[in-house]
Amino acid sequence: MRGAVERPAGLTYQPELLTDDEERSLLSTLGALDFREVRMHGQVARRTVRHFGFDYDYGSFQLTRAEALPVALHGLRDRCADLAGCAPEALAQALVTRYPPGAVIGWHRDAPAFGPTVVGVSMAAACLLRFQRGTAEGRRVYELELAPRSGYVLTGAARSSWQHSIPPVPALRYSVTFRTLRPGRAGASASAR
Known about the structure:
This protein has a single domain (4-191), classed as Alpha-ketoglutarate-dependent dioxygenase AlkB-like (Jelly Rolls). It has helices at residues 20-31, 74-84, 156-160, and strands at 4-5, 11-14, 36-40, 43-52, 54-56, 63-65, 93-99, 105-108, 114-123, 127-133, 140-146, 150-154, 163-166, 173-181. The protein has three helices and 14 strands. It comes from Micromonospora coerulea.
């Protein structure tokens, strides 16, 4: 990765957010979910997903109401809200992603429909979370290894100015990402503090 190394402002990382037992229990819950394919620009991704609270259409970029967050994930949402310093209800959308070995996610920022706070939890296998902003000589980069059971928060510049990606994962990995909604979106009355 070429460019000057710079840690994104607004990036928080918490190793061991979960205990081994909590991770085992959550992985059992996640493994039983009915995952759906991700189709972007006519291509089907290797990763599969499940949305709660609000569904996100990768083609139209629209949010629609979805099934409520399962009770088994409420404790995880509470823990993530504590990490982000917001009310649990502010984390109105949850994305559960299953990454089989070799799955990636390309450079992106979470969609503009989502608000200023993104909180993620990494489970099963470790992965690299890469960041970039700028181009050519002004390019800034940062890499962070997300250990199993760890959590991270993207706010401020880390959420709005930096892109992030995950290169091919070496082994099966799950992530749960909680997001606030942009003010003015349906159900966005509970906003991040």
